[in-house]
Amino acid sequence: LCGEYRAAAVPRIVVAPVQALMQPVPTPAALERNAITLRVGQTIDPNQIVAWLADRGFARLDQVEQAGDFALRGGILDVFHSAAVDPLRFEFFGDEIESIRTFNVSTMRSSGELNEVRISLPPRLADGEQAAQARGADSDTRNEEWVASFFDYLPSDVIVVIHEPADVQEMGRTLKERLGRPASMFDVGAVFERAAAHRVVYLSRFESAAADAEHSFAAQTQSLPPFDTHAADAVLQLFELAREHRVVVYCENEGERQRLRELIEQVAQAGAAPAPAIDIEIGLIRAGFTWGPPPISLGGTGPGAAGLLECDEKSDLPADSARSGGAPHHQTADAPVPSTLAPSRSPEGGGSRFSVVGHHELFHRFQRRRRLRQVTAARPIESFLDLKAGDFVVHALHGIAKFMGMKTLQKTHGSKTEEYLALQFADEAVLHVPANQIDLVQKYVGPGAAAPKLSTLGGTRWKSARARVEEAVTDFAGELLRIQAEREAREGIAYPADTPWQREFEAAFLFNETPDQLRAAGEIKSDMARPRPMDRLLCGDVGYGKTELAIRAAFKAAEYGRQVAVLVPTTVLAEQHYETFRERMAEYPFTVERLSRFRSAAEQRQIVDRVRKGHVDILIGTHRILSRDVQFSDLGLVIIDEEQRFGVEHKELLKHLRTMVDVLTLTATPIPRTLHMSMVGLRDISALETPPLDRRSIVTRVTAWSDALVREAVLRELNRDGQVYFVHNRVASIHRMAARLGRIVPEARIVVGHGQMPGDELEDVMVRFVRRQADVLLCTTIIESGIDIPTANTILINRADMFGLADLHQLRGRVGRYKHRAHCYLLLSPDRPLTSNAARRLKAIEEYSDLGSGFRIAMRDLEIRGAGNVLGPEQSGHIAAVGYEMYCRLLEQAVRRMKGLPPDEPPDVHLELNVEAHVPKSYIPSERQRMEVYRRITACRTLADVELAERDIADAHGKLPPQVETLLALADLRIRAAVWKVRSIVRRDPDLIFTVDDVPRADVLFRGATGRVRFMDARTIYWRVPDNYFSHPTLLAVLRKLFAKPAPVEAKSA
User: Fold this and answer.
1) Three-state secondary-structure class, residue 576
2) Which of 285, 441, 790, 856 has the fewest beta carbons under 10 Å from its own?
3) How far apart are alpha carbons 502 and 555 in whole angstroms?
4) Are 945 and 1013 spatial neighbours (Cβ–Cβ below 8 Å)?
5) Burial 198-220 (b: 16+ CB within 10 A, else e)
6) Is 115 exposed, middle or buried (0-12, 13-18, 19+ CB in 10 A)?
7) Residues 324, 293: contact at Cβ < 8 Å?
8) Are 735 and 802 members of one domain?
């Protein structure tokens, strides 16, 4: 924000708590010293920029992934600037900046061009220890660059508004006393002194606050009583308001207008009160208002409405009411201010009465506004990109081997060099796989941590294992297809298109949907519109929006008169879902109930009876819902949360339900994209992969245990009204730790939970924490994965060196679910030395706060668990035999085979033309990125794929060298040759030897060809061409021209 002020991108209004204003910031001079301006045409050594970035704490990576990263690849410099929405790409010609582009970090494609950029960031403190000293006990030792206040950046004409100054002073003093580091921040008195350099306005309920003010006045205002919770009661109050005012209600859409009309008619027909004249219009209240007699307007709060009043000549109001009166007072159209009513003359004619009412108050709908920014789908996790020497891999033809690295070797035939993957099999046999055949190799990922047994090169064990897995996946796919066919044959409920109510309900969602959410919502509605039972799996991390999509599906079913059952694995989740569903459905005539052990036996009997009679629309509960006494009147939809956590008996009941009613299953465990793609046609899966708009990276710190640090971390969270997880994974000493924490932070309310507690007792603890009856949850690793606690944003993990990388990642993921900045402290014992492996794990998790390459291994471990949830435990042995990615490939092939579809594989054409085709190290130094380029090119299935790959590689790495151009030309040639049923082309001067599958088609291919063509046998053709054809560019051009003619159309079988 300080940088924005220095760059003159000044926001109009800044709202800040006193805690923020007490924090020191860099001085304007220091900020200026730490800025650099770069423009197109500027001459500057790229290494000079690299040194500047590294000195300010940027991390150099092969590929940028999060703010604070940069990457230099030849003449391309990528910088992910901390304040930028999109990272920047500088392309150099020598030392001249040829272009500056923004690019999408997910696709690495350029998205826009800039002429000039300014990179500005706070000065970096050398390390954590120096930072602690700089903000330590003595103000004289504070880093001289961190002594400014935010007020130092404000223009002189700024107005500072202090709301309730007495409360602000008390909060500031309390904060400083709690933290116990007086020199680390300004006193609250210093904040007031710096504010006094500007024009100050104090707002207070108390007249005493004006004692020291130069000018003061008392506003004779009072708040309108809030509308009642129920919409019908709110309409009655609207009637009362309309007796003294003209009321105009502006609705955002037709659904809202229809809903309000129905409510008014219902209340009037009930005879409670006659309906006065109320105008209900559709429109956005914007642009400003004119001072004059009635009207009263209630403004919409939907996206783009911003709840602004418009009662001038542009409004839909009659001209006499919109234009009469005194001087106009205009609001700015873009300013997000509340809906405001024009003043109304009192009936007695004595003075003006000014009322303020918002449409959100009528329906109790408060839309959370966010600054919109571009959201892109998350990049899929490609395990192959993490391949390094020593990793296990699977060769499609030869089995499991160990990857020994990339080697550059001379070709067997000819003088050209080529890059190879060196694979070591059993008995130290080594196979060199050409890099252009990289699609035959995948990284081995199994369900366990045990190392796989290497295959024997040329042996039969691998072929037998692969054959067994192929048979198993065929049976598995057949069973899923049988269940799917059974569902298709049954008549289900075909729900109608969205009604105005449904559109109104969805418009009331507090957040902006991500692209994934919108796509998944469309898929769910499409399923529900079909006349067969739905069975869809919805995957997404906590906070990614699964529950909202489930609520929308439940709304559609309930509106159509069908009952909905929401099945969850724990009472805690039942409570949380009940509150969420009830809040979202509050304004609609749907009854939401819950069945759990927190309801008495009598209450449960009453609920079961109401469900049987059809008086409950949505029932939420644990496996109690599956009991025989729970009989639904007209069940239409079952929503299952985390199905894998239910028992075998319950799963069998659910399997039967799937063929009867619509079923939507939710899971927070990520599902691998490769499995998702291989199950297309077997199971309907929607994946939410895009994080919410305001999700921020988690500040992670590895440090030795310190009572002072623990106290500071807990109090920082409590001071912002948050909650804390403290993970201590030893049950024997957990209560001693609770006592110790109680001494360190006596202000905190601490509860203890662990897996050896009785289930009811553990759930009670979790419910207390969810209901905010406790500040700190001291627990083992049983932190509930499905519980969504937005206020818990600090986690301390004791003896973090004893955890694996995947476990640390999963634990840290319990916080940072929402827009609040989350903190993770990895605490170490000061008396025990770290092992080298533990140090590497902790360094990785500290450096990679986002889902970057450092966590692909951890995420893959979680995804394998997700795969097990979808496939079932019986498939784990088959995954172990051939590796996860090979299993997915075999499953996909089995599905396509059983559905009569052609294989979806890259063209299998062997080319041996003795041309220089590889990715030079001078072009892409990173072995990982070179393998990514090879993988991208060999995966091309169409000519359009080749063209796109060429553009993307040049965009990300710069102008293509001839060797890469040749690599792309060979990919183009393979695709063209495959159309003509050519299996291989081998150069043996003076001949080109073709192996074909279709001789009549080959006869058409070679008609009119220059040179001598000989058909040697049923599949082999020799083509002797002139000597000058064998020069590198000419040879590829001749072959491309040969395959350019249209291939004969295959006759379709009857």
Assistant:
1) helix
2) 790
3) 7
4) no
5) eeeebebeeeebeeeeeeeeeee
6) exposed
7) yes
8) yes
Asked if residues 639 and 567 have their Cβ atoms less than 8 Å apart, the reply is yes
Q: Report the distance separating Cα 362 and Cα 234, nearest Å.
A: 6
Q: Determine the average pLDDT of the residues in 340-355.
A: 36
Contact 699, 530 (CB under 8 A): no
Note whether 725 and 783 are within 8 A (CB).
yes
What is the C-alpha radius of gyration for the chain, rounded to an integer number of angstroms? 34
Q: Check whether 687 has a pLDDT greater than 80.
A: yes
Q: How far apart are CA 884 and CA 67, in angstroms?
A: 32
Contact between 496 and 560 (Cβ < 8 Å): yes
Distance from chain centroid for Cα 536: 20
User: Tell me, what CATH number does 828's domain have?
Assistant: 3.40.50.300
Last residue of a domain, one of 315, 334, 363: 363
CA distances, 391 to each of 117, 388, 401, 450 (Å): 42, 6, 9, 13
Token duo for residue 858: 């951890």
- The model's pTM: 0.68
Q: Which two tokens stand for residue 963?
A: 């060797």
Evaluate if residue 45 carries a pLDDT over 80. yes
SS3 call for 621: strand
Binned at pLDDT 50, 70 and 90, residue 185 comes out as confident
Contact 540, 614 (CB under 8 A): no
Amino acid symbol at 464:
S
Read off the pLDDT of each residue in 431-435 and give the average, rounded to a whole number: 91
Parent domain of 781: 699-855
Instruction: Respond yes or no on whether the N-terminal peptide bond of residue 17 is cis (omega within 30° of 0).
Output: no
Residues 545 and 673 in one domain: yes
- Residue 7 in domain: no
pLDDT digits (tens, 9 = 90+) for 803-824: 877 678 778 878 887 667 889 9
Let me know the angle formed at the C-alpha of 242 by 240 and 243, rounded to the nearest 5 degrees. Answer: 70
CA distance 425 to 433: 13
Q: Output the six-digit token pair for 974.
A: 């393979």
Q: Is the dihedral of CA 640, 641, 644, 650 positive or negative?
A: negative
Within 10 angstroms of residue 307's Cβ, the number of other Cβ atoms is 24
Q: Would you say residue 265 has pLDDT above 90?
A: no
**Would you say 160 and 199 are in contact if contact means Cβ atoms under 8 Å apart?**
yes
Task: Looking at the structure, tell me whether residues 536 and 683 fall in a common domain.
Answer: yes
- Rounded-to-integer distance, Cα 324 and Cα 292, Å: 6
Q: Is the peptide bond before 990 cis (omega within 30 degrees of 0)?
A: yes
Q: What is the DSSP string of 315-374?
A: SSS-HHHHH-SS-EEPPPTT------PPPEE-TT-SSEE-----HHHHHT--PPP-----
Distance CA 1018, CA 69 (A): 58
Residue 976 resides in a domain: yes
